[in-house]
Task: inverse folding
């Protein structure tokens, strides 16, 4: 017979197991929170973001959790946890619309982005816009596997294990013009977010979906006609072949074309790096010996399967010479490159610096797969996009970059002083074809 204190303890443990993975409501807010920089041209089209419809089935709006079962040795809760609308502090359609407005305003492809009352059909003549976007949310959920057990045969009685949560979002978009429908596509994103909550995984998937939309609209409206081509020598140490390299770097090329009107023309060639080299050693002793193409850069791909143990997830996956011509990106798996890492390292070649915004590709830790630069680094890219790699920076470019770096010191909550100091040091050290004495930036 259990004493009362033991009964209370058992009841508490059962309640703990029954309430495992309590999902706290999270607001669905725009993921890009830096203010939009000045629009480069008033000639850009004006976009209205119409009403967003929520067309999910009623059953998909309700959360679910695995049942609590009685087994011979105790209690078990095993299966999928799924978010429902109660997991979010505001409406899904309203939240998705707000993120669309914020993301597309930051894309730089429109002179103005504003909400409008438009569902399709009659053109909203009460506002002056050139395009109107409408959307329908078809999937908006998070899924996380759980196995929790309670048994008197264990020390501590309770064991719980949760898999990394996966956010899943699918949205159907339509872009309208006064003359009718001009573009239509369904975009779907599944985002695994290790170490995050189940609701954070959904919000990351929503953010990725909006950023992918920005890239599709960039092409749909014919933006970025004034594109500068950067010859790029790719050292294929991951044995992908020219087609595999092109596929692996497709998002990288698209990101710089949208962000800075730069197109990296890839020319892949086989490369056999030593098995025991690290990223730092490979850049210093191997990659820098390769001559960049005239006016271009060298991007080396180094296999990391045997160099990065799975139990050390925070090791570096890329490194680059700030304001130089050489960058190195690791392949964590065969034929797999993290696009966000490649964008980050190439950004350093153009003078981009680390910021504290996890939604920016220049965040020091790659815990979000987004493709957007923050406003500070976008201004840096646009100030250095005309540079001729392999030659000293022009006095005009140096002046523009120095002014941007010094102005950024007014925002210590966004940029650390040590990063600005390193950027100014690299700018002073730029001489010849690569920085002299500058420390390589890594991620």
Result:
């Amino acid at each position: 017979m259990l004493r009362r204190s033991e009964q209370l303890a058992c009841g508490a443990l059962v309640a703990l197991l029954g309430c495992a993975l309590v999902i706290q409501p999270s607001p669905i807010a725009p993921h890009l929170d830096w203010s939009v920089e000045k629009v480069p041209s008033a000639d850009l089209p004006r976009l209205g973001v119409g009403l967003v419809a929520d067309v999910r089935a009623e059953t998909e709006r309700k959360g679910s959790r695995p049942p609590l079962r009685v087994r011979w040795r105790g209690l078990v809760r095993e299966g999928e946890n799924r978010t429902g609308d109660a997991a979010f502090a505001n409406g899904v359609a309203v939240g998705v619309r707000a993120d669309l407005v914020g993301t597309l305003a930051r894309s730089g492809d429109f002179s103005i982005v504003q909400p409008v009352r438009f569902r399709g059909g009659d053109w909203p003549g009460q506002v002056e816009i050139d395009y109107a976007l409408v959307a329908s949310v078809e999937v908006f959920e998070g899924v996380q596997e759980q196995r929790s057990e309670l048994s008197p045969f264990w020390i501590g009685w309770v064991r719980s294990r949760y898999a990394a949560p996966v956010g899943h979002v699918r949205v159907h978009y339509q872009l309208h013009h006064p003359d009718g429908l001009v573009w239509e596509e369904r975009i779907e994103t599944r985002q695994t977010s290790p170490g995050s909550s189940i609701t954070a995984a959904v919000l990351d998937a929503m953010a990725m979906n909006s950023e992918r939309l920005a890239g599709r609209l960039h092409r749909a409206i014919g933006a970025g006609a004034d594109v500068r081509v950067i010859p790029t020598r790719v050292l294929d140490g991951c044995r992908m072949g020219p087609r595999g390299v092109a596929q692996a770097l497709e998002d990288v090329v698209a990101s710089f074309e949208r962000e800075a009107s730069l197109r990296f023309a890839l020319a892949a060639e086989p490369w056999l790096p030593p098995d025991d080299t690290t990223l730092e050693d490979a850049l210093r002793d191997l990659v820098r010996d390769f001559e960049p193409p005239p006016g271009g850069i060298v991007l080396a791909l180094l296999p990391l399967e045997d160099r990065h143990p799975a139990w050390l997830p925070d090791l570096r996956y890329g490194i680059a010479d700030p304001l130089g011509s050489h960058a190195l990106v690791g392949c964590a798996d065969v034929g797999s490159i993290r696009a966000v890492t490649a964008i980050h390292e190439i950004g350093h070649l153009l003078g981009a610096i680390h910021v504290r915004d996890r939604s920016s590709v220049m965040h020091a830790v790659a815990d979000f797969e987004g493709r957007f630069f923050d406003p500070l680094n976008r201004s840096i890219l646009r100030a250095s996009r005309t540079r001729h790699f392999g030659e000293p920076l022009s006095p005009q470019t140096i002046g523009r970059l120095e002014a941007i770096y010094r102005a950024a010191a007014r925002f210590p909550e966004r940029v650390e002083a040590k990063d600005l100091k390193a950027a100014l040091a690299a700018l002073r050290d730029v001489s010849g074809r690569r920085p002299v004495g500058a420390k390589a930036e890594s991620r």
